[in-house]
Amino acid sequence: MNIMDIFISVLIPSFNEAENILPIYHALTKELSHRIARYEIIFIDDGSTDQTIEWIKELSYHHPEVKYVALTRNFGKESAMFAGLKHARGDAVIIMDADLQHPTSLIHSLIEGYEEGYDQVIAQRDRAGDSFVRSKLSSLYYAVLEKLVDVELKDGQGDFRLLSRRAVNAVLQISERNRFSKGLFSWIGFHQKVIKYDNTTRKAGVSKWSIKKLIDYGIEGVVSFNHKPLRICLYTGIATLLLSLLSISIMFVRILFNGIAVPGYFTTISSVLFLGGAQLVSLGVIGEYIGRIYVEAKQRPHYLIEQTNVGEDVIHVKEQ
Ligand code: UDP
Ligand code: MG
To answer: Residue ranges of the Glycosyltransferase 2-like domain (predicted)?
Structure first.
């Protein structure tokens, strides 16, 4: 396919990114305008409380290729991306952050990958520039995740990637509410190509990830892709039960022969504590899954739209 024939959609989930809207628009235009004939840049305003939507609207007023989907409140990046994917009409869709941490210069390598026939072209970053603690915690997390999760997840492979129309349609078929896109992108499969790049720091504004959000996201990654944590609970439960049965029998036999010797303060307290802890952990894990079932059962929409200049009805579903 000639590069000129491709219709590219660039999706940018944006939450309080007012200072970044113009810079990312210019950086993208520089890369796209001379080489790609048809493209659209869709900003998804994820309930920003600053001037983000005003900047986007101003741009879209002058530049018809700029589209926006403004959500009614902050639904989180996952839902914002889902809204973007629903509204994108391109033959290929590129997802990137608003803060210029995803180099726009990679766009051509992404599109080249698409032309070579890949359905997903993934930009993988190294962790230079991340704080020491965050990068160490991330690698530890991915090491654990690799053991626990059934889909393949790699450190540094995030949402910055190109998806072909086929891949986008596949992702859209997955309607679960608790979305962990990295996992979903990996789950859909298709031919994938990885392009590496050096990490850059955020140009303006602050990261929207608090420690709590990161931990929540981490738990999401583990529990949304398998039931192994439940299985681990079951195994620890069985092991604790067998061990306590063993020690009870030993104690019983001892009492039969020696009579009651010591009051046994230590053993009582330690077993109560240990069992209490094991039970709480297990309950917590079960709760995680039940919580997800609850959220799915409610079948609420993933997001609500306040205003948009992309019609929901014009979703382009061209199969390749
Ligand atoms: N974002 C969003 N909704 C949120 C949080 C973040 O749409 O609730 C967007 C944000 O505007 C940015 C991207 O997701 O374009 C990545 O966010 P951020 O830069 O804060 O994450 P980090 O790079 O620190 O992982
Ligand atoms: Mg960022």
So the answer is: 9-170
The answer to whether the CB of 98 is under 6 A from ligand 1 is yes
Measure the CA–CA gap between 146 and 155, rounded to whole angstroms: 10
For residue 15 and ligand 1, the question of a CB distance below 6 A is answered with yes
Choosing from 48, 97, 125 the residue with most ligand 1 atoms within 8 A of its CB, the one to mutate for a pocket test is 97
Question: What's the CA-to-centroid distance between 201 and ligand 2, angstroms?
Answer: 7
Write down the ipTM of this complex. 0.94
| Ligand 1 near 167 CB (within 6 A) | no
Phi and psi torsions of 210, nearest 5°: -90, 165
Measured distance CA(131)–CA(113) in Å, rounded: 31
Residue among 316, 304, 307, 311 at smallest CA distance from 56? 307
Render pLDDT for 210-237 as a digit per residue (tens, 0 to 9): 777 778 888 877 777 777 777 777 778 7
- The encoded tokens of residue 106 equal 């990679």
Count CB neighbours of 108 within 10 A.
Answer: 14
Atom of ligand 1 nearest to the CA of 207: 20
Which residue puts its alpha carbon closest to atom 12 of ligand 1?
97
Q: What is the DSSP string of 145-199?
A: HHHH-SS---TTEEEEEEEEHHHHHHHHH---SS--HHHHHHHH---EEEEEE--
